[in-house]
Amino acid sequence: MKIPGLLLGLGLLLWPALAAAQPVRIKDIADVEGVRDNQLVGYGLVVGLPGTGDRLRTAIFTRQSLVGMLERLGVNTRDNEARLDTRNIAAVMVTANLPAFAQPGSRIDVAVSSLGDASNLTGGTLLVTPLLGADGAVYAVAQGAVATGAIAARGAGASIARGVPTSARISSGAIVERAVPYTLAGRDHIRLALRNPDFTTAQRIAAAINGRGGNVARAVDPRTVLLTLGGRDPMNFITQIEQLRVTPDQVARVIIEEASGTIVMGEQVRVSTVAIAQGNLTIRITETPQVSQPNALGQGETVVVPRTQIEVDDQAERRMGVLRGGVTLAELVRGLNSLGVGPRDLITILQSIKAAGALQAELEVR
Q1: Residue 62 lies in a domain
Q2: Residue 212 and residue 98 in one domain
Q3: Which of 192, 226, 262, 361 could tie 252 with a disulfide, CB 3.0–4.6 Å?
Q4: How many CA atoms lie within 13 A of 22 on its CB side?
Q5: Is 307 a domain residue?
Q6: How buried is 200 (Cβ within 10 angstroms: 0-12 exposed, 13-18 middle, 19+ buried)?
Q7: CA 246 to CA 261: how far, in whole Å?
Q8: Please, which residues have CB within 8 angstroms of residue 239's CB and are 6 or more apart in sequence?
Q9: Which of 34, 55, 176, 45 is nearest to 105 (CA)?
Q10: Following CA atoms 176, 182, 186, 190 in sequence, which dihedral angle do they give, to the nearest 10 degrees?
């Protein structure tokens, strides 16, 4: 039996889901509320580009930033601002995530993205750029050589590009100047926030924690589990409970990415009894014209003789298949594979099964 490549790949990618669900650590499915990253943003200049920066005549903000920077360094260019014409500088937006409990002096990674019409940031250096939080305060300062990891080359008749040369990163490129105030000591309660909200999973987490002894956990809602410390050391208590294992529950859902033909199915997907037949009429016309010419001593002229071959494939060998009620994900994939359907046909089949009321799962098409 011939199995389409994408369906075979689907089976390989989903083989963990075909087995029984395995317990996972609480730290892998829930976060401690308040212990999170904070987003930072800043505006800066990248210099030292090999003629691939912004055009100062069109990128007004880049020219104004360059003039302002030079004035702060004691160079007056106001009188000759209109004559500035360099392509070695680019205006960029700098973003970073400030980790929880990051202290002044620690370093974080930053991302640099071109703001003007620069074509390539490779080889540039980001000048000192303050990174602001949502409150407008400066929490870090970024500077350093940027690395795009991209390749771009252009000639008279061809060009090649790999990656995005106008987006770069600086590893450990920012120094934290201010910490976000947050402390665990002295708290009476701690909240665990589930990354995938679910009633059953929240109750299982609370039961696993209470199983250690003491009624200290309570599921408040599908996303939150409230922990009562009762004088316990927060660090020691969190370290102990985050290693506990629970089996997360999941909603029966089928995700279809129509643009790429990607299909992902959850373990709980079930199909009621349904019959499926799939087939298309394909007509293939092949033109192979031949040249006919007379002998060297003969009379006549050279002509082109058409040769047309027509093939009709009605896919009559494909039969109707019956999927029994309550089949599992593994049986569903096997049954569809047996029909020899391709990825696009599989999407149509799943949508039709859902329309018939036989797909006992949520179908999400993106």
Answers
A1: yes
A2: no
A3: 361
A4: 8
A5: no
A6: middle
A7: 33
A8: none
A9: 176
A10: -130
Low-confidence spans in the chain with pLDDT less than 70 = 1-21, 156-157, 276-289, 291, 294-300, 304, 308-343
- 187-197 confidence digits (pLDDT tens): 889 999 999 99
Determine the length of the chain.
Answer: 366
C-alpha 304/C-alpha 285 separation (Å) is: 18
User: Which residue type, as a one-letter code, is found at position 195?
Assistant: R
Contact 204, 249 (CB under 8 A): yes
Nearest partner of 189 among 242, 241, 239, 225, judged by Cα: 225
Are 188 and 166 contained in the same domain? no
Residues 50, 137, single domain; the answer is yes
Least Cα distance to 311 among 286, 345, 278, 337 occurs for: 286
Query: What does the alpha-carbon distance between residue 343 and residue 324 come to, in Å, rounded to a whole number?
Result: 22
Q: Are 230 and 187 in contact (CB under 8 A)?
A: no
Rounded Cα gap, residues 179 and 116, in angstroms: 32
Q: What are phi and psi of 188, to 5 degrees?
A: -90, -25
Nearest to 121 by CA among 65, 61, 166: 166
At 152, give phi and psi (nearest 5°). -140, 125
The end-to-end CA distance of the chain, in Å, is: 31
Give me the half-sphere count of Cα atoms (radius 13 Å) on the Cβ side of residue 366.
10
pLDDT digits (tens, 9 = 90+) for 166-178: 999 999 999 999 9
In a domain, 291, yes or no: no
Q: Which domain holds residue 212?
A: 28-35+183-246
